[in-house]
């Protein structure tokens, strides 16, 4: 039933075409037979008849284009798809067989009816239809024959594999009769249609349309109106040129037609008046889309969870974020280039059919179709090379970023030759992929040019023959050539545009992939803001693991009272820093709960939760800006006097005042112009300026020398006074005054208490203390 239905739908176009053609011929015959004698009535009937015939002619043109499209689709079926193996099934084969029967019947009926109606004489339209029907019949037969031969080869191959011994030597290393490499991966077996691929970009549509700006929306509608007007001008330019040549051929001086032609030409094209106005009006719309898209992408990446940023190379993420313009360029080309081009080509086919005859329409449609088909067909092969080049480009950017950011490490290890060799190798890989892209592009351009020149040759030969026979005037030859030359521009554009679209889509795929990544930690629908905080923290039966096979925290329970200091100690990997990450909600607990003032942190919006924390990390990151900017970063609204007060608390104010530019001194990339102690004090000042209720110290003095450590400790005591503080400490001498010390071991809390109490317990804490005391004495 399926093949019969498919064939019925497929061949409804030729049947409808035959019926409309028969009706038009019958209407014309009856009109000539019953011609009235009254001249006025005759003139009115002629006008009505001409309008009716013109309408029928246009319908015939559309139906003829559908028939040609079916024929050309069959032609494309003879070629294997680059992404999908050529493997038609029995349903396809049955459809082809039924189509052969239907096509043969239609062809015979059309031939007999045309000869009977016109006394054995056929016009160009009828000859064209019969030729197209015969071509379809031949192609269907070829497809059926190819299917039979391919199926025989598959049967022979299966027969050989079935008779092969299961005890062959190859089977000794594999389970069963099929080698491990025989089965294609699921990724290779899966194919995605073009519609599904483009549908993946629908998430970006809200950022492309200026929904919040009525003025820009009005300009966009006006631009679309100008686009429609340009399509009309493209039709009128060659038509007006033909009229002008005809008048000049008669020896007249058609000033009105000359001026009208000049006006049309001034309005035509992207550089014409209409195109220029449209381009100028579209600038703010394009900029608005780019601004929303890039800002949204940057915001999305910054809102992704910590695990994403720890697992991705910075260079690759930056490269992906920089591709926002690719989507914008693709949108502009799609609206103002591709859609108008398709419309112009369709109108050209109808124009040639209505004002000339079917032969010209067939040539134009065939040239257009083969041009577009070969472009898309070859571009599928080129897409793989383009993706490979894009991947190599990202790897090259990532390697550059890593090397430049690790400048000191590279030179400390005398690794410049190694980095240069690595970068040269990546450049070589990129250029190899790039060579494939450019080579295939030049081959594609040559094939495109051959197809178009062949179409021009056929059109010129046909037009010259008809003009020599007196069917058309010389002016029509000029119109035809002008129109063809006018069509070459959009066709050539499509070749480059399709390549550009591929490049843009490949570039945009990474940005789209970023959009599709959802943060592992998000605000719950019922989350509420925390406007005030007293600083009471509690961990209740907390379970957490980065890798589910190996728990990081197991049944962790402790409480921190407001205004007190809790220190967490233990060997590396015991889970100390993880506690701070869970408190800050960089990760979600797998079990249990983390509460602040009795409220689960998952029920608090992350933005307001983090406002109540200040963090002093072990490795302070400073921006390549002034000291004032870096200190003020935690509280941009703070006054200069407040910044100075925070720096005094951190014992860094006097040092800053000794710099030539004082608070306006630039700290360099990642703060490299400052010493380790100075950077830590800047971090403390920044934390104090935020005025938090909770201070988190993540081994804030672990990388400093003893003298600097003592100075920093004094600053920290002042900064943490009156605030709830959780300090992760490597040096136990820095936390002897803590109200509570928690000892971690393999994700468990094994000891807790004050310094003197833990020393008296003779446990892990005491052994750590004695070891550090012994090392410092030595």
TrEMBL record:
Record keyword Thylakoid present: no
Region (Disordered): 160-187
Subcellular localization, as worded in the UniProt entry: Membrane
ABC transporter domain ranges (all copies): 537-771
ABC transmembrane type-1 domain segment(s): 221-503
Any GO MF annotation of the entry: ABC-type transporter activity
GO biological process terms on file: transition metal ion transport
Polar residues composition bias: residue spans: 164-187
GO cellular component term, pick one: vacuolar membrane
UniProtKB keywords: ATP-binding, Membrane, Nucleotide-binding, Transmembrane, Transmembrane helix, Transport
Coiled coil (UniProt feature): none
Transmembrane residue ranges: 12-31, 52-74, 94-117, 129-149, 214-233, 330-353, 359-379, 450-468, 474-495
One Pfam family of this chain: ABC_tran
PROSITE patterns for the chain: ABC_TM1F, ABC_TRANSPORTER_1, ABC_TRANSPORTER_2
Membrane topology of this protein: Multi-pass membrane protein
Similarity comment text for this entry: Belongs to the ABC transporter superfamily. ABCB family. Heavy Metal importer (TC 3.A.1.210) subfamily.
Protein name: ABC transporter
Biological source species: Cochliobolus sativus (Common root rot and spot blotch fungus)
């Amino acid at each position: 039933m399926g093949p019969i239905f498919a064939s019925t739908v497929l061949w409804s176009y030729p049947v409808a075409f035959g019926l409309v053609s028969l009706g038009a011929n019958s209407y014309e015959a009856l009109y000539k037979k019953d011609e009235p004698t009254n001249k006025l009535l005759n003139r009115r009937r002629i006008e009505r008849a001409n309008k009716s015939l013109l309408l029928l002619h246009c319908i015939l043109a559309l139906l003829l284009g559908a028939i040609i499209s079916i024929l050309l689709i069959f032609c494309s079926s003879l070629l294997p798809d680059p992404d999908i193996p050529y493997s038609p099934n029995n349903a396809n084969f049955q459809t082809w067989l039924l189509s052969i029967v239907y096509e043969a019947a239609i062809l015979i009926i059309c031939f007999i009816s045309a000869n009977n109606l016109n006394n054995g004489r056929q016009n160009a339209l009828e000859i064209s239809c019969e030729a197209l029907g015969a071509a379809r019949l031949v192609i269907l037969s070829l497809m059926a024959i190819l299917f039979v031969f391919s199926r025989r080869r598959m049967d022979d191959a299966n027969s050989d594999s079935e008779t092969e011994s299961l005890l062959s030597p190859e089977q000794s290393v594999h389970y069963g009769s099929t080698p491990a490499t025989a089965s294609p991966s699921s990724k290779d077996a899966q194919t995605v249609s073009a519609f599904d691929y483009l549908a993946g970009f629908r998430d970006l549509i809200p950022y492309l349309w200026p929904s919040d700006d009525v003025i820009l929306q009005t300009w966009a509608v006006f631009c679309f109106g100008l686009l429609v007007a340009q399509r009309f001008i493209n039709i009128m330019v060659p038509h007006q040129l033909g009229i002008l040549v005809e008048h000049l051929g008669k020896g007249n001086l058609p000033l009105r037609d000359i001026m009208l032609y000049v006006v049309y030409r001034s309005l035509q094209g992207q550089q014409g008046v209409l195109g220029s106005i449209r381009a100028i009006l579209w600038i703010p719309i394009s900029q608005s889309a780019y601004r929303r898209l890039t800002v949204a992408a940057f915001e999305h990446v910054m809102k992704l969870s910590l695990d994403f940023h720890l697992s991705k190379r910075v260079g690759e993420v930056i490269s992906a974020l920089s591709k926002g313009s690719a989507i914008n360029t693709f949108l502009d080309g799609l609206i103002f280039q591709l859609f108008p081009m398709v419309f112009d080509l369709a109108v050209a086919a109808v124009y040639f059919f209505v004002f000339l005859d079917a032969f010209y329409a067939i040539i134009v449609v065939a040239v257009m179709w083969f041009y577009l088909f070969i472009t898309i067909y070859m571009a599928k092969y080129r897409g793989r090379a383009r993706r490979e080049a894009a991947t190599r480009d990202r790897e090259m950017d990532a390697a550059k970023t890593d090397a430049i950011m690790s400048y000191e490490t590279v030179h400390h290890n005398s690794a410049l030759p190694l980095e240069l060799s690595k970068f040269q190798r990546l450049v070589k890989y990129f250029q190899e992929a790039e060579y494939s892209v450019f080579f295939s592009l030049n081959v594609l351009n040559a094939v495109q040019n051959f197809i178009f020149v062949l179409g021009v040759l056929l059109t010129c030969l046909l037009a010259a023959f008809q003009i020599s026979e007196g069917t058309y005037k010389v002016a029509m030859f000029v119109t035809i050539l002008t129109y063809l030359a006018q069509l070459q521009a959009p066709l050539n554009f499509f070749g480059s545009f399709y390549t550009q679209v591929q490049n843009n889509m490949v570039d945009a795929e990474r940005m789209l992939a970023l959009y599709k990544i959802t943060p592992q930690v998000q605000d719950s629908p019922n989350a509420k803001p925390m406007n005030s905080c007293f600083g009471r923290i509690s961990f209740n039966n907390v379970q957490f693991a980065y890798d589910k096979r190996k728990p990081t925290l197991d049944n962790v329970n402790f409480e921190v009272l407001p205004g007190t200091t809790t220190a967490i100690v233990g060997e590396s990997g015991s889970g100390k820093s993880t506690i701070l990450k869970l408190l800050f909600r960089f990760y979600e607990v797998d079990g249990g709960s983390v509460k602040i003032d009795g409220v689960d942190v998952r029920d608090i919006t992350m933005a307001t939760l983090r406002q109540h924390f200040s963090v002093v990390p072990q490795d302070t990151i400073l921006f390549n800006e002034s000291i004032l900017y870096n200190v003020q970063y935690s509280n941009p609204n703070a006054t200069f006097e407040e910044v100075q007060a925070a720096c005094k608390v951190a014992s860094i104010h006097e040092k800053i005042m000794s710099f030539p530019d004082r608070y306006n001194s630039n700290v360099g990339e990642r703060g490299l112009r400052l010493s380790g102690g100075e950077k830590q004090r800047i971090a403390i000042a920044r934390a104090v300026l935020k005025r938090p209720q909770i201070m988190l110290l993540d081994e804030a003095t672990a990388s400093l020398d003893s003298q600097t450590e003592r100075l920093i400790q004094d600053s920290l005591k002042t900064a943490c006074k009156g605030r709830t503080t959780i300090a992760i400490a490597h040096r136990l001498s820095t936390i002897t005054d803590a109200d509570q010390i928690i000892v971690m071991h393999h994700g468990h809390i094994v000891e807790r208490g004050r310094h003197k109490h833990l020393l008296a317990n003779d446990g892990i804490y005491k052994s750590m203390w004695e070891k550090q005391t012994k090392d410092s004495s030595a």
